[in-house]
Write a structure and sequence with these properties.
mainly alpha; 2 strands; two-stranded antiparallel sheet; about 300 residues; single chain
């Protein structure tokens, strides 16, 4: 005689069916969540990328199309005239060289100062270190115009007016606080055991920092360098206050694209599109380092 399940318990076959239905429901819920996330991501990408795409399309329009009312997104007639006009203007190539010089010098200065400062703050944890890092955060919140005007006066008194060095120092005041905070989070994620093991093997404190800690946080250094470079590359106010002719950067040159009929939108968009290329290439080249650095900063050792 076949055994019957105890009273009050579901039979085996209906239980398996209910589990299968639950799994199907969970899978359907996950698919719906993924679909919603993809839609939100697509909307965010369109909203974020549309201004740049519109700039890019405008750079290929004819001068008449750039001021057409109502405006069109795609050019009616594709042309490279705006690029030849923009790049052929006097001072444009020199402004690119000035922008590269200023951004590179500012990035190097920020890393040279931020790496040892962040290492000392995170490893020694003194009260003065905590005060210093909070002071760095406060200086980051000060409006740039409150720093730019006295800095311009100081650089002129020092004989550095209208030079890339002066502008690089000014840009370092913007990127250094952020660099210190970023590097502090990356150093915090490195276990102290690594340094102690290196000192047991005969390394000095400085040797352990150079041979063990710096390679571990190399991704974080790349991330910090990218942010420092972008801060200088995109800066406009300091460049407007502290440069005249010799060291003008490209954002200032773009702002000067005016004709007797108004702004030269075609040349402005063409030069802005060209000016975006180095940043895009730099980000793509260091993509793996950036991801590794962001992951390193998110994981505490």
């Amino acid at each position: 005689m076949a055994s019957q399940p105890p009273s009050g318990l579901p039979e085996a076959q209906p239980l398996r069916k209910r589990r299968g239905v639950n799994r199907e429901g969970l899978e359907a819920g996950r698919r719906s969540t993924r679909t919603i996330l993809w839609i939100l991501l697509a909307v965010a990408m369109v909203l974020y990328g549309f201004p740049f795409l519109y700039l890019l399309f405008t750079s290929f329009k004819t001068p008449i199309d750039t001021i057409a009312v109502p405006p069109t997104i795609l050019p009616k007639e594709w042309t490279l005239e705006n690029y030849t006009n923009a790049l052929g203007r006097s001072g444009v190539v020199a402004s690119f060289i000035n922008s590269i010089q200023t951004a590179v010098i500012s990035t190097l200065l920020s890393l040279i100062l931020a790496v040892p400062a962040a290492y000392g703050i995170t490893r020694y944890k003194t009260p003065s270190g905590r005060v210093f890092i909070m002071a760095a955060l406060v200086t980051r919140m000060v409006p740039p115009v409150a720093i730019g005007i006295p800095l311009a006066s100081m650089m002129a008194s020092a004989g550095l007016a209208d030079t890339p060095i002066a502008l690089s120092i000014a840009h370092t005041t913007i990127s250094l606080p952020l660099s210190i905070w970023l590097m502090s989070s990356f150093f915090e994620s490195v276990p102290r055991d690594l340094e102690e093991a290196a000192t047991v093997d005969g390394c000095s404190r400085l040797g352990a920092l150079w041979r063990v800690v710096i390679p571990v946080v190399s991704g974080g250094i790349a991330v910090t360098a990218i942010f420092a470079f972008l801060a200088s590359w995109n800066e406009f106010l300091f460049a407007l206050l502290m440069t005249a002719i010799r060291s003008q950067t490209t954002p200032v040159v773009i702002a000067n694209f005016q004709t007797q009929f108004g702004l030269d939108w075609g040349s402005m968009t063409a030069l802005a599109a060209v000016y975006s290329i180095p940043v895009i290439l730099l980000t793509l080249l260091l993509q793996r380092k950036i991801v590794a650095g962001m992951t390193l900063g998110a994981v505490k050792g």
